[in-house]
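Board notes, transcribed. Complex of a protein with 2-acetamido-2-deoxy-beta-D-glucopyranose.
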Amino acid sequence: MANQHCIRILTLLNCFLAIVRGQYTQGHGVAYDSKALESIFEARNLELGFPTPQERERVLSAGLYNPDGVVPIDVDVYYTHGDKTPSIFVTIPRFAKGVPYSLAYVTNEVRANGTELRAYPNYDWHQSHGADCNGLTSVYRTLIDECGRMWILDSGEIDFVQHCPPQLYAIDLASGNMVHHYRMPMGLYKPGVSRFVTPTIELDAHNCDVGHVYMADSIGAGIVVYDVAAQKSWRIENKYTSPHPDFGTFTIAGESFELWDGTVALTLTPHGLAGRMERMLYFHSLSGDWQMAIPLQVVNNASLWTGSMWKPNDVTIALDQFVVLGKRGSQCVGTAMSETGMLLCGLVQPPSIMAWNIRQPYKHENLALVIHDEKRLQFPSGMKIVRNHEGKEEMWVLSNRLQKAFGSGLNYQEVNFRIQKCGVHELLSGLPCH
Ligand SMILES: *[C@@H]1O[C@H](CO)[C@@H](O)[C@H](O)[C@H]1NC(C)=O
Ligand SMILES: *[C@@H]1O[C@H](CO)[C@@H](O)[C@H](O)[C@H]1NC(C)=O
């Protein structure tokens, strides 16, 4: 038995590999690494399009565009009604000053370093570089809801300088109109420290304007909950939203770098899963390996987090409601939940995609590496599950070799940035992705 063998003598990571090898060589008669995701976008560097060639020259000479400093983090995908070719969006956070725009869509123009991107919703939204807060300053991740709206979480900082408060925008993808806008009040973020990186949304089944948005503050190590209808938010911060020293160093393909990030990703358990489970918010820290959960009812209870009992920096509120589901022994970045209750997660080491059925205990024997790809999955920072034109769920993942971008530097002779996908059913049942 591979599992017992694992638990006895191997490290957790080798254990994962042993399980997957065992599954695929014994169960399916193919080597585990023969399975690959379907490649949708590959780039040696991001090819950014501009309104005019003169504008490109202007930002280059003004120091607002450094072609060696644009790194994508997230992918989002939208199938317009019945159309089998989706719109694909990419975020490019302003880690440093030379990022001309922070949210883009993929065009059909193929250029030398990769397919050309263009600014979304348009170039003007990005042009002030923090001078005007009516626009986008820096975007790490987005999420498209069931009502066809893209929620954009803007961290408001460039190169660790807080130019604007963190903001949340919702744009109706069909019309391109902004349909919601919220500025986070002081007290819910830490200027120059907070880094809001990931939004997750829970909407009322019958009303697109009622629900909650959960926002992960990775460096500030907290979660801000926003009540969309009431336009009120509150902050959750405690030991479970924080990083852990054992997981502050990231090593990929022999290269290491440091990240000290708390909560990075949030997912929700599906509605009415077999009718037995109360809905939960799952979350985890980037520099950590604990998989956490908390009942949605507790997270959404404004009086708990803002009521008369509340004190600033109180790290004890509802602490007994937080559940440590388990520890995976490795860092996980992007994550997404399928409608059937499979939690997918992009592991850093080994570069892979892990799947867990949320009905089972979060234990090694129930964590399966469904894709392992040392070359094409280096730092899987963005992951989404979307429904395609036929109503089928697809997993999309963006990887960006962050260990090189933050370490020795990217080698632009190689493909550095990839967007790949697989049908969720195919991914989980060992079938080819394409
Ligand atoms: C491709 O990217 C490299 C690295 O940033 C850059 O030096 C080069 O000019 C780019 N090539 C084109 C044709 O834009
Ligand atoms: C919200 O929290 C308050 C304070 O602890 C509690 O009295 C109330 O029952 C909670 N409401 C819900 C819906 O859980």
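Residues 16-429 form a domain with the Neuraminidase fold (CATH 2.120.10.30). The chain has one domain: 16-429.
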